[in-house]
Amino acid sequence: MPEIDLVYLWVDGNDPQWRAKRDATIGKPTDSEDNCRARFVDNDELKYSLRSIDRYAPWIRRIFIVTDGQKPAWLNTDNPRVQIVDHTQIMPPECLPCFNSAVIEHHLHLIPGLAERFIYANDDMLLYRPAMPETFFAADGFPIARMRRLHCRKLFVFFKEKVMRHRLNTYAKTIDYAARLVEKMFGHYYGCRTHHNIDAYLRSNYALTRQLFDPQIAPTLPHHLRSQNDVQRNIYTFTALATRCAHLQYVDAHTSLNFRIDHIHLHHEGYLNELLRKYQPTFLCLNDTQFGNDGDREAVRRFLEEEYPEKSQFER
Question: Lower CB count within 10 Å: N or C terminus of the chain?
């Protein structure tokens, strides 16, 4: 079995010292998409995500948690399979302090000891069913690139921006920018985006992509906060596809269930359970946004404790 590692990004936005550093650098959270409380608040999702990994993917070799001078209080750091990676270990001084996941993601291949094959997750991404190495990597060793098809994407972007004069949100804009950079280099525009869940990469291809697009990526690195001019990590998947180092697999919303927490009806908390039982997805993402509130987060926490009640080996 090939060695496969797992990388997480994690932040505890409840930490007063961290908040003070954030406020001094980018200001206090607002209701905006790019600097809202949901970007940084910790609802213990990482703990439950690790429980899902322990239950459904025990074959993972090592787990790297990339943080900014923080460590979950519940984490068992004596477990040799889990390691904290500080931003300063993989990012140059001009990036720091960093509150922009797009910037952090450009440095994942620099994690010391990271396996050639690795999977990457945000802390709100979980497994809901058993997953095997072949869930993420094909028989030839190349990653499976799970993408959400965006029909006529190029035309949609043109019509919205040039005809309707509407502003794309930051996430959509940065994905389109990455697709256009790959198109310029390789001649193909990928009108799709990753399924916003656990994705697979080759470290060598990640490093090659960073090298190929270094002039375009470099202006992103000093952006402490998300920007529409960022180069988004979809560029790594698009490049792997363009160089035939990945296998494209289109998925729908039910294969990889992404659920915005503000859509969990508090008067009907069984709604999420009903969706999961109906579609039986392998992947689950409980995506927090500027529209969520603490009541939504508490509903999510109750659901996670009910769904993943047993401690993992990664907890104290």
Answer: N
DSSP string, 247-293: EEEEE-TTTEEEEEGGGS-TT-THHHHHHHHHH--SEEEEE--TT--
CATH superfamily entry for domain 4-307: Spore Coat Polysaccharide Biosynthesis Protein SpsA; Chain A (3.90.550.10)
Is residue 137 within 8 Å of residue 4, measured between CB atoms?
A: yes
Q: How many residues does the chain have?
A: 316
Distance CA 239, CA 212 (A): 10
CA-to-CA distance for 44 and 124, rounded, in angstroms?
9
Structure tokens belonging to residue 173: 């804009």
Residue indicated by tokens 């769904």:
307
- Which residue type does 228 have? Q
Question: Is the pLDDT at 265 greater than 60, yes or no?
Answer: no
How many Cα atoms are found within 13 Å in the side-chain-facing hemisphere of 38?
Answer: 20
- In this structure, how many other beta carbons lie within 10 angstroms of the beta carbon of residue 260? 15
Tokens read off for 206: 């990640």
Return the pLDDT at 260: 64
pLDDT for 276 beyond 80: yes
Q: Which of 57, 105, 104 is nearest to 81 (CA)?
A: 57
* Element spanning 185, H or E: helix 170-186
Q: Are 34 and 22 in contact (CB under 8 A)?
A: no
pLDDT of 205-238, one tens digit each? Answer: 999 999 999 999 999 999 998 888 999 999 999 9
Per-position DSSP letters for 2-50, written without gaps between them: --EEEEEE---TT-HHHHHHHHHHH-S--SSSSS-GGGT---SHHHHHH
